[in-house]
Amino acid sequence: MMEKISFLTEILPYVKKFRGTVFVIKLGGSCVANPRALQSVTSSVCMLGSLGIKVVLVHGGGPQADELQNKLGYPVVKIAGKRVTDKNALEVTKMVYAGKINTDVVAAMQKNGSQAVGISGVSAGTICAQKCAVRKVKNEKTGKVEDVDYGYVGDITNVDTHLIDSLMENGIIPVVACLGTDNEGNVFNINADRVAQQISIALRAEKFINVTNVPGLLEDKDREHSIISYLDVAESKKWMGSGKVTEGMIPKLESCIASVEGGVRRAHIIDGNMPNSILIEVFTNQGCGTMIVNKKDNSGKVQ
Protein backbone atom coordinates (compact mmCIF):
# COMPACT_ATOMS: atom_id res chain seq x y z
CA MET A 1 0.00 0.00 0.00
CA MET A 2 2.80 2.42 0.89
CA GLU A 3 4.42 1.79 -2.52
CA LYS A 4 1.17 2.73 -4.25
CA ILE A 5 0.87 5.92 -2.22
CA SER A 6 4.50 6.77 -2.96
CA PHE A 7 3.86 6.24 -6.68
CA LEU A 8 0.80 8.50 -6.61
CA THR A 9 2.78 11.15 -4.76
CA GLU A 10 5.40 11.01 -7.50
CA ILE A 11 3.07 11.26 -10.49
CA LEU A 12 0.45 13.74 -9.22
CA PRO A 13 2.63 16.85 -9.67
CA TYR A 14 3.23 15.83 -13.29
CA VAL A 15 -0.46 15.21 -13.89
CA LYS A 16 -1.30 18.68 -12.57
CA LYS A 17 1.50 20.27 -14.58
CA PHE A 18 0.58 18.69 -17.90
CA ARG A 19 -3.23 18.82 -17.74
CA GLY A 20 -4.51 20.96 -20.63
CA THR A 21 -1.20 20.91 -22.51
CA VAL A 22 -0.48 19.30 -25.90
CA PHE A 23 1.74 16.27 -26.49
CA VAL A 24 2.72 15.33 -30.05
CA ILE A 25 3.71 11.67 -30.24
CA LYS A 26 5.44 10.19 -33.26
CA LEU A 27 5.01 6.45 -33.62
CA GLY A 28 7.52 4.66 -35.85
CA GLY A 29 6.47 2.06 -38.40
CA SER A 30 8.35 -0.69 -36.56
CA CYS A 31 6.21 -0.07 -33.46
CA VAL A 32 3.00 -0.15 -35.49
CA ALA A 33 4.06 -3.54 -36.89
CA ASN A 34 4.51 -4.95 -33.37
CA PRO A 35 1.06 -5.73 -31.87
CA ARG A 36 2.35 -5.54 -28.28
CA ALA A 37 4.08 -2.21 -28.86
CA LEU A 38 1.02 -0.78 -30.61
CA GLN A 39 -1.21 -1.92 -27.76
CA SER A 40 1.11 -0.41 -25.15
CA VAL A 41 1.47 2.93 -26.95
CA THR A 42 -2.22 3.38 -27.75
CA SER A 43 -3.17 2.38 -24.20
CA SER A 44 -0.76 5.01 -22.83
CA VAL A 45 -2.07 7.65 -25.26
CA CYS A 46 -5.60 6.94 -24.08
CA MET A 47 -4.44 7.30 -20.48
CA LEU A 48 -2.92 10.69 -21.26
CA GLY A 49 -6.21 11.78 -22.81
CA SER A 50 -8.17 10.67 -19.74
CA LEU A 51 -5.88 12.85 -17.58
CA GLY A 52 -6.75 15.96 -19.58
CA ILE A 53 -3.71 16.02 -21.88
CA LYS A 54 -4.37 16.76 -25.54
CA VAL A 55 -2.57 14.30 -27.78
CA VAL A 56 -1.74 14.27 -31.49
CA LEU A 57 -0.42 10.97 -32.82
CA VAL A 58 1.76 11.01 -35.95
CA HIS A 59 2.84 7.72 -37.50
CA GLY A 60 5.40 6.50 -39.98
CA GLY A 61 5.32 3.28 -41.98
CA GLY A 62 8.57 2.77 -43.86
CA PRO A 63 8.92 -1.00 -43.22
CA GLN A 64 5.32 -1.65 -44.29
CA ALA A 65 5.76 0.45 -47.44
CA ASP A 66 8.95 -1.49 -48.28
CA GLU A 67 7.10 -4.78 -47.84
CA LEU A 68 4.20 -3.86 -50.13
CA GLN A 69 6.48 -2.29 -52.71
CA ASN A 70 8.51 -5.50 -52.91
CA LYS A 71 5.35 -7.60 -53.20
CA LEU A 72 4.19 -5.45 -56.11
CA GLY A 73 7.54 -5.85 -57.82
CA TYR A 74 8.60 -2.22 -57.53
CA PRO A 75 12.23 -1.81 -56.49
CA VAL A 76 12.81 -0.03 -53.18
CA VAL A 77 15.50 2.61 -53.70
CA LYS A 78 17.04 4.44 -50.76
CA ILE A 79 19.91 6.88 -50.91
CA ALA A 80 21.54 8.08 -47.68
CA GLY A 81 18.70 6.39 -45.80
CA LYS A 82 15.96 8.32 -47.60
CA ARG A 83 13.39 6.68 -49.85
CA VAL A 84 13.41 7.71 -53.50
CA THR A 85 9.70 8.14 -54.23
CA ASP A 86 8.80 7.70 -57.88
CA LYS A 87 5.17 7.47 -59.06
CA ASN A 88 4.85 3.79 -58.11
CA ALA A 89 6.42 4.34 -54.70
CA LEU A 90 4.12 7.31 -54.10
CA GLU A 91 1.04 5.15 -54.77
CA VAL A 92 2.37 2.61 -52.28
CA THR A 93 2.99 5.22 -49.58
CA LYS A 94 -0.51 6.61 -50.02
CA MET A 95 -2.03 3.13 -49.68
CA VAL A 96 0.10 2.16 -46.71
CA TYR A 97 0.31 5.41 -44.72
CA ALA A 98 -3.16 6.85 -45.18
CA GLY A 99 -4.78 3.43 -45.59
CA LYS A 100 -3.59 0.37 -43.70
CA ILE A 101 -1.46 1.89 -40.96
CA ASN A 102 -3.74 4.84 -40.23
CA THR A 103 -6.72 2.49 -39.97
CA ASP A 104 -4.85 0.04 -37.74
CA VAL A 105 -3.75 2.79 -35.32
CA VAL A 106 -7.24 4.31 -35.13
CA ALA A 107 -8.72 0.85 -34.49
CA ALA A 108 -6.21 0.26 -31.68
CA MET A 109 -7.19 3.60 -30.14
CA GLN A 110 -10.86 2.65 -30.31
CA LYS A 111 -10.07 -0.70 -28.65
CA ASN A 112 -8.49 1.18 -25.74
CA GLY A 113 -11.54 3.38 -25.28
CA SER A 114 -10.58 6.67 -26.96
CA GLN A 115 -12.18 8.43 -29.86
CA ALA A 116 -9.70 8.92 -32.67
CA VAL A 117 -9.93 10.16 -36.24
CA GLY A 118 -7.45 9.24 -38.93
CA ILE A 119 -6.28 12.05 -41.20
CA SER A 120 -3.23 12.77 -43.31
CA GLY A 121 -1.35 15.97 -43.92
CA VAL A 122 -3.43 16.29 -47.09
CA SER A 123 -6.65 16.58 -45.05
CA ALA A 124 -7.90 20.20 -44.97
CA GLY A 125 -4.45 21.34 -46.13
CA THR A 126 -2.90 20.47 -42.79
CA ILE A 127 0.59 19.94 -44.23
CA CYS A 128 1.55 22.17 -47.13
CA ALA A 129 4.69 20.99 -48.88
CA GLN A 130 6.82 21.44 -51.94
CA LYS A 131 8.97 18.98 -53.86
CA CYS A 132 12.32 18.73 -52.17
CA ALA A 133 15.19 20.20 -54.13
CA VAL A 134 17.86 18.06 -55.74
CA ARG A 135 20.31 17.16 -52.99
CA LYS A 136 24.05 16.64 -53.16
CA VAL A 137 24.75 13.25 -51.59
CA LYS A 138 27.99 11.34 -51.20
CA ASN A 139 27.96 8.01 -53.02
CA GLU A 140 29.23 5.51 -50.46
CA LYS A 141 30.51 3.18 -53.18
CA THR A 142 32.45 5.70 -55.27
CA GLY A 143 33.09 8.39 -52.67
CA LYS A 144 31.88 11.02 -55.13
CA VAL A 145 29.25 13.67 -54.33
CA GLU A 146 26.31 13.27 -56.71
CA ASP A 147 23.06 15.12 -57.39
CA VAL A 148 20.06 13.09 -56.21
CA ASP A 149 16.42 13.72 -57.13
CA TYR A 150 14.25 12.03 -54.50
CA GLY A 151 11.11 12.33 -56.62
CA TYR A 152 7.82 12.87 -54.80
CA VAL A 153 9.44 13.60 -51.45
CA GLY A 154 8.25 16.84 -49.90
CA ASP A 155 9.67 19.57 -47.72
CA ILE A 156 7.14 21.17 -45.37
CA THR A 157 6.38 24.83 -46.09
CA ASN A 158 3.44 25.39 -43.73
CA VAL A 159 1.31 23.65 -41.10
CA ASP A 160 -2.36 24.60 -40.72
CA THR A 161 -3.57 23.30 -37.34
CA HIS A 162 -7.25 24.22 -37.81
CA LEU A 163 -8.44 20.63 -38.29
CA ILE A 164 -6.22 19.24 -35.54
CA ASP A 165 -7.34 21.96 -33.11
CA SER A 166 -10.99 21.28 -33.92
CA LEU A 167 -10.62 17.56 -33.26
CA MET A 168 -8.77 18.06 -29.98
CA GLU A 169 -11.29 20.61 -28.74
CA ASN A 170 -13.96 17.96 -29.21
CA GLY A 171 -12.04 15.35 -27.25
CA ILE A 172 -10.89 13.44 -30.35
CA ILE A 173 -7.31 12.30 -30.88
CA PRO A 174 -6.01 13.08 -34.39
CA VAL A 175 -3.98 10.28 -35.96
CA VAL A 176 -1.89 11.84 -38.73
CA ALA A 177 -0.32 10.04 -41.71
CA CYS A 178 2.86 11.62 -43.08
CA LEU A 179 1.70 12.92 -46.45
CA GLY A 180 1.39 16.51 -47.64
CA THR A 181 0.25 18.45 -50.66
CA ASP A 182 0.98 21.65 -52.53
CA ASN A 183 -1.47 24.20 -53.96
CA GLU A 184 -1.63 22.26 -57.23
CA GLY A 185 -2.86 19.10 -55.50
CA ASN A 186 0.42 17.20 -55.85
CA VAL A 187 0.88 14.70 -53.03
CA PHE A 188 4.26 14.18 -51.37
CA ASN A 189 5.79 11.58 -49.13
CA ILE A 190 7.23 13.35 -46.07
CA ASN A 191 9.46 12.03 -43.31
CA ALA A 192 7.26 11.33 -40.28
CA ASP A 193 9.83 12.76 -37.85
CA ARG A 194 9.65 16.07 -39.73
CA VAL A 195 5.85 16.02 -39.79
CA ALA A 196 5.66 15.45 -36.03
CA GLN A 197 8.35 18.08 -35.43
CA GLN A 198 6.55 20.78 -37.41
CA ILE A 199 3.15 19.95 -35.94
CA SER A 200 4.59 20.14 -32.41
CA ILE A 201 6.07 23.57 -33.16
CA ALA A 202 2.86 24.84 -34.75
CA LEU A 203 0.81 23.68 -31.75
CA ARG A 204 3.34 25.06 -29.24
CA ALA A 205 3.35 21.62 -27.68
CA GLU A 206 4.56 20.89 -24.19
CA LYS A 207 6.21 17.69 -25.39
CA PHE A 208 7.32 16.03 -28.61
CA ILE A 209 7.77 12.30 -27.96
CA ASN A 210 9.47 10.17 -30.59
CA VAL A 211 8.51 6.53 -29.98
CA THR A 212 10.90 4.22 -31.78
CA ASN A 213 12.49 0.76 -31.49
CA VAL A 214 15.61 1.78 -29.52
CA PRO A 215 15.91 2.86 -25.85
CA GLY A 216 17.05 6.39 -26.70
CA LEU A 217 20.31 8.07 -27.62
CA LEU A 218 23.10 5.69 -26.62
CA GLU A 219 26.58 6.67 -25.55
CA ASP A 220 27.70 3.34 -27.03
CA LYS A 221 25.37 2.04 -29.74
CA ASP A 222 26.39 -1.55 -28.90
CA ARG A 223 25.30 -1.21 -25.26
CA GLU A 224 21.54 -0.82 -24.76
CA HIS A 225 21.97 0.36 -21.18
CA SER A 226 24.26 3.28 -22.07
CA ILE A 227 21.30 5.63 -22.47
CA ILE A 228 22.00 9.36 -22.30
CA SER A 229 18.96 10.32 -20.28
CA TYR A 230 19.19 14.09 -20.31
CA LEU A 231 20.89 16.68 -22.50
CA ASP A 232 20.30 20.12 -23.91
CA VAL A 233 20.35 21.45 -27.47
CA ALA A 234 24.03 22.42 -27.40
CA GLU A 235 25.03 18.97 -26.15
CA SER A 236 22.74 17.33 -28.72
CA LYS A 237 24.41 19.23 -31.55
CA LYS A 238 27.82 18.10 -30.32
CA TRP A 239 26.59 14.52 -30.49
CA MET A 240 25.30 15.12 -34.02
CA GLY A 241 28.75 16.35 -35.06
CA SER A 242 30.61 13.54 -33.31
CA GLY A 243 29.86 10.93 -35.96
CA LYS A 244 28.44 8.61 -33.28
CA VAL A 245 24.83 9.32 -34.25
CA THR A 246 24.07 7.16 -37.27
CA GLU A 247 21.31 5.83 -39.53
CA GLY A 248 17.75 6.20 -38.22
CA MET A 249 18.80 8.06 -35.08
CA ILE A 250 19.95 11.04 -37.17
CA PRO A 251 16.47 12.32 -38.21
CA LYS A 252 15.10 11.51 -34.75
CA LEU A 253 17.66 13.59 -32.90
CA GLU A 254 17.51 16.32 -35.55
CA SER A 255 13.73 16.59 -35.17
CA CYS A 256 14.02 16.74 -31.38
CA ILE A 257 16.58 19.54 -31.59
CA ALA A 258 14.49 21.48 -34.13
CA SER A 259 11.28 21.11 -32.10
CA VAL A 260 12.90 22.43 -28.91
CA GLU A 261 14.54 25.29 -30.81
CA GLY A 262 11.09 26.00 -32.28
CA GLY A 263 9.51 26.45 -28.85
CA VAL A 264 8.53 22.94 -27.70
CA ARG A 265 9.48 22.65 -24.02
CA ARG A 266 10.70 19.04 -24.01
CA ALA A 267 11.52 16.42 -26.62
CA HIS A 268 11.95 12.73 -25.89
CA ILE A 269 13.21 9.59 -27.63
CA ILE A 270 11.89 6.38 -26.08
CA ASP A 271 11.48 2.69 -26.84
CA GLY A 272 7.96 1.69 -27.88
CA ASN A 273 8.76 -1.98 -27.24
CA MET A 274 9.09 -1.27 -23.51
CA PRO A 275 5.67 -1.61 -21.81
CA ASN A 276 4.23 1.72 -20.64
CA SER A 277 7.35 3.59 -21.76
CA ILE A 278 5.42 6.80 -22.46
CA LEU A 279 3.91 6.88 -18.98
CA ILE A 280 7.24 6.06 -17.31
CA GLU A 281 9.03 8.81 -19.26
CA VAL A 282 6.35 11.44 -18.61
CA PHE A 283 5.25 10.71 -15.04
CA THR A 284 8.35 9.45 -13.19
CA ASN A 285 11.47 11.23 -12.05
CA GLN A 286 13.88 8.73 -13.57
CA GLY A 287 12.15 8.35 -16.94
CA CYS A 288 13.28 5.63 -19.35
CA GLY A 289 14.64 7.30 -22.50
CA THR A 290 16.42 10.44 -23.67
CA MET A 291 15.04 13.92 -22.94
CA ILE A 292 16.24 17.03 -24.79
CA VAL A 293 15.71 20.51 -23.34
CA ASN A 294 16.70 23.96 -24.55
CA LYS A 295 19.38 24.81 -22.02
CA LYS A 296 20.86 23.70 -18.71
CA ASP A 297 22.97 25.81 -16.39
CA ASN A 298 26.23 24.54 -14.91
CA SER A 299 24.40 22.66 -12.18
CA GLY A 300 22.34 20.75 -14.73
CA LYS A 301 19.16 22.63 -13.85
CA VAL A 302 16.87 23.43 -16.79
CA GLN A 303 16.55 27.07 -17.72
Explain the layout of strands and helices:
Layout: H1 2-18, E1 22-27, H2 29-32, H3 35-50, E2 54-59, H4 62-71, E3 78-79, E4 82-83, H5 87-111, E5 116-120, E6 127-131, E7 135-138, E8 145-148, E9 154-159, H6 162-169, E10 173-177, E11 179-181, E12 187-189, H7 192-202, E13 207-212, E14 230-232, H8 233-241, H9 249-261, E15 266-271, H10 277-283, E16 290-293
Helix pairs in contact: 4-5, 7-9, 8-9
Descriptive notes:
It is a single chain. This protein has 303 residues and is an alpha/beta fold. It has a single domain (19-116, 164-179, 193-293), classed as Carbamate kinase (3-Layer(aba) Sandwich), CATH 3.40.1160.10. 40% of the residues lie in helices and 23% in strands. It has helices spanning 2-18, 29-32, 35-50, 62-71, 87-111, 162-169, 192-202, 233-241, 249-261, 277-283, and strands at 22-27, 54-59, 78-79, 82-83, 116-120, 127-131, 135-138, 145-148, 154-159, 173-177, 179-181, 187-189, 207-212, 230-232, 266-271, 290-293. The strands form five sheets. The chain has an eight-stranded mixed beta sheet with strand order 5-10-2-1-13-15-16-14, sandwiched between helices. It has a two-stranded antiparallel ribbon with strand order 3-4. Helix 8 (233-241) runs antiparallel to helix 9 (249-261). The longest helix has 25 residues, at 87-111. It is globular, with a radius of gyration of 19 Å. The model has no long low-confidence stretch (mean pLDDT 90).
